[in-house]
Write a structure and sequence with these properties.
This protein is an all-alpha fold. 65% of the residues lie in helices and 0% in strands. The chain contains two helices and no strands. The longest helix has 30 residues, at 48-77. It starts with 22 loop residues before the first helix and ends with a helix.
């Protein structure tokens, strides 16, 4: 899957092939982002609470993505 095939499609997306091994993570975090936006709208959350919520989501994704990339590179070295 390419980044410009995600739904909804990012408006400034350039064609970028997402490795199949990373796709479940990308899709899961895209779902988390949608849910976060919906819950913040429903709760009327604004300002610093938005900043903190997004930071938690991004930090979580960064940790998972970094570990997955390290794993993929290690696997490639042992092939």
């Amino acid at each position: 899957m390419r980044i410009d095939q995600l739904h909804p499609t990012p408006t400034a997306a350039q064609p970028l092939e997402i490795p199949p091994k990373l796709l479940p993570s990308v899709e899961r975090h895209q779902g988390h982002l949608k849910a976060l936006i919906a819950s913040m709208r429903t709760a009327g959350i604004e300002g610093d609470a938005i900043d903190a919520s997004v930071r938690v989501l991004i930090d979580s994704y960064a940790d998972e993505l970094t570990a997955a990339i390290h794993s993929m590179i290690q696997e490639e070295r042992h092939v």
